[in-house]
Design goal:
80 residues, mainly alpha, Non-ribosomal Peptide Synthetase Peptidyl Carrier Protein, Chain A, 4 helices, 0% strand
Protein backbone atom coordinates (compact mmCIF):
# COMPACT_ATOMS: atom_id res chain seq x y z
CA UNK A 1 0.00 0.00 0.00
CA UNK A 2 2.77 2.45 0.87
CA UNK A 3 4.40 1.97 -2.54
CA UNK A 4 1.12 2.92 -4.24
CA UNK A 5 0.78 5.96 -1.99
CA UNK A 6 4.38 6.92 -2.76
CA UNK A 7 3.69 6.78 -6.49
CA UNK A 8 0.61 8.97 -6.07
CA UNK A 9 2.51 11.43 -3.86
CA UNK A 10 5.28 11.54 -6.46
CA UNK A 11 2.69 12.43 -9.11
CA UNK A 12 1.46 15.25 -6.87
CA UNK A 13 5.01 16.56 -6.43
CA UNK A 14 5.54 16.45 -10.20
CA UNK A 15 2.30 18.40 -10.73
CA UNK A 16 3.00 21.04 -8.07
CA UNK A 17 6.62 21.60 -9.12
CA UNK A 18 5.88 21.23 -12.85
CA UNK A 19 8.71 18.73 -13.05
CA UNK A 20 7.93 15.28 -14.50
CA UNK A 21 11.38 14.01 -13.56
CA UNK A 22 11.06 14.23 -9.77
CA UNK A 23 11.88 10.89 -8.18
CA UNK A 24 10.97 10.85 -4.49
CA UNK A 25 12.91 9.10 -1.79
CA UNK A 26 11.58 8.73 1.75
CA UNK A 27 14.47 10.83 3.04
CA UNK A 28 13.76 13.79 0.69
CA UNK A 29 13.22 17.15 2.36
CA UNK A 30 12.55 20.66 1.10
CA UNK A 31 16.31 21.09 0.72
CA UNK A 32 16.35 18.36 -1.94
CA UNK A 33 13.73 19.75 -4.31
CA UNK A 34 14.16 23.06 -6.13
CA UNK A 35 11.34 25.47 -5.40
CA UNK A 36 10.05 23.71 -2.28
CA UNK A 37 9.29 26.66 -0.03
CA UNK A 38 6.51 27.47 2.42
CA UNK A 39 4.03 28.32 -0.33
CA UNK A 40 4.62 25.18 -2.34
CA UNK A 41 4.52 23.20 0.90
CA UNK A 42 0.97 24.47 1.48
CA UNK A 43 0.07 23.61 -2.10
CA UNK A 44 1.48 20.09 -1.63
CA UNK A 45 -0.54 19.59 1.55
CA UNK A 46 -3.73 20.85 -0.11
CA UNK A 47 -3.21 18.66 -3.16
CA UNK A 48 -2.59 15.59 -0.97
CA UNK A 49 -5.65 16.26 1.17
CA UNK A 50 -7.80 16.60 -1.95
CA UNK A 51 -6.31 13.63 -3.77
CA UNK A 52 -6.52 11.23 -0.82
CA UNK A 53 -9.71 12.76 0.61
CA UNK A 54 -8.23 13.31 4.06
CA UNK A 55 -7.22 16.15 6.37
CA UNK A 56 -3.90 16.77 8.07
CA UNK A 57 -3.86 18.48 11.44
CA UNK A 58 -1.56 21.44 11.95
CA UNK A 59 0.59 19.32 14.27
CA UNK A 60 0.93 16.60 11.64
CA UNK A 61 2.01 19.06 8.98
CA UNK A 62 4.54 20.64 11.32
CA UNK A 63 5.95 17.24 12.30
CA UNK A 64 6.80 16.13 8.76
CA UNK A 65 10.60 16.02 8.51
CA UNK A 66 10.72 14.25 5.15
CA UNK A 67 8.61 12.70 2.40
CA UNK A 68 8.61 9.32 4.13
CA UNK A 69 6.84 10.78 7.14
CA UNK A 70 4.19 12.34 4.88
CA UNK A 71 3.59 8.98 3.19
CA UNK A 72 3.43 7.17 6.54
CA UNK A 73 0.87 9.67 7.84
CA UNK A 74 -1.24 9.29 4.70
CA UNK A 75 -1.15 5.49 4.95
CA UNK A 76 -2.23 5.62 8.62
CA UNK A 77 -5.17 7.85 7.75
CA UNK A 78 -6.27 5.67 4.84
CA UNK A 79 -6.35 2.53 7.02
CA UNK A 80 -8.78 4.09 9.52
Amino acid sequence: MQEQIKQEVQAIFRKVFLNPEIILLDKNTADDIDGWDSLTHLELITEMETHFNLHFTFDEVMSFENVGQMIYCISKKLVK
